[in-house]
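Preliminary data (for renewal application), flavin mononucleotide complex.
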Amino acid sequence: MAYPYVSDREVRILSKHFGDPAARTLEGALANGRYEALKKALEMDRGAVIEEVKTSGLRGRGGAGFPTGVKWSFMPKDSGKPHYLCCNADESEPGTFKDREIIRWDPHQLIEGCLIASYAIGAEHCYIYCRGEFFEASSILAKAVEDAYQAGYVGKDILGSGVNVDITVHIGAGAYICGEETGLMNSLEGRRGQPRVKPPFPAAAGLFGMPTTVNNVETLAAVPHIVEHGGEWYRQWGTEKSPGTKLFCVSGHVNRPGNYELPLGFPLKDLIHDVCGGIRDGNALKAVIPGGSSVPILSAEESEECALCYEGVIAAGSMLGCASVIVMDETTDMVKQVRRMAYFYQHESCGQCTPCREGSAWVTKILRRIEDGRGKEEDLETLVEVTTQMTGTTICVLSDSVAAPVQSSIEKFRDEYLALIRRGERVGAA
Ligand SMILES: Cc1cc2nc3c(=O)[nH]c(=O)nc-3n(C[C@H](O)[C@H](O)[C@H](O)COP(=O)(O)O)c2cc1C
Ligand code: SF4
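Predicted structure:
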């Protein structure tokens, strides 16, 4: 057992070298087979690389789960314009801590994925946009990029192939909204990190107005393995609709929180009770947020039969998102938990859209009032109404992210809200 916990139920492809500092160096990376897939890809036709990724069924690991090969095929073939790849390393969703680990432990795996993806979409420049707080990870990555430049894996005429790809590591300023792909591009261009209205979509007009693909770190890190072994090989794990392995970030009230790489479709109850060693102090499970704070909360009963794949989590009543599993035991104060999430989104809202800017602030205020024992029963209807108006009405889905935890908690833990409201009424009456 290493890093700090490894389960024998894991399938460690992306995370195989987590915990081994030697894998960070170029020598260590080469010994681990890094850049072999790049050599193979450079001998393939660009379209064939895209087809292989399509065959694998790889879905974007940044949250939406969009098929990666399909996204790449949206890039124009002969646009005559510069194309760009943006690697999204902004990772700010509460409960998510996987991308930074890929960067910290195996940066050349990511660089290789960026190079292959750039080649496939015809991009000669890739920007890796790192979250501002990633001091250690971004310096490890910058050093790895420098070493890869010196060894001829990055830059002009890569390995004598005639293919040019430059990589720039860009450090953000620590804003959640810069993880949204168009906010990220605005930030890279030196503008305010505010999402853009779509269409146009990035493949048509993205960074600097040019055709652009944005992919998450984990998505790109999976690409060298797919190119090396083939798309069908990747499908031996996971389900038909969710092939491959996925890094699950587990936090909260389990005995062994951490990152675990598991085949998609893995049972949530096994993740909690086996891989993570069960609930702390022998407590009972109360609820699980399966995909980062933007998705609906599952009750303990709903988690019981939940399979951790895109379609399985939807069937259970939530979304897989970026597979950040937040586990809450019976001691959790649900209203406080939801208020803290709403406050996070209020703080991170970029303020362009009225429903998001005003709604997130009002929702936080109302939740605070209930938590403080000054709530009324009508507040629950107001919360549902306000969050409904915040859904599907804004430029990006940050606004919808407030609605998911608020509405699901009112539906599933209404008694907790009512207990606080009634206790407040009794205190008021006394
Ligand atoms: C508010 C908001 C924040 C986001 N933050 C991230 C992030 O930190 N990292 C990420 O990869 N995707 C994030 N996304 C999703 C990106 O917009 C985009 O879909 C993703 O980077 C695409 O990569 P993929 O296809 O490989 O998943 C965010 C989306 C929204 C709406
Ligand atoms: S929904 Fe919120 S975060 Fe997204 S663009 Fe509108 S105001 Fe900004």
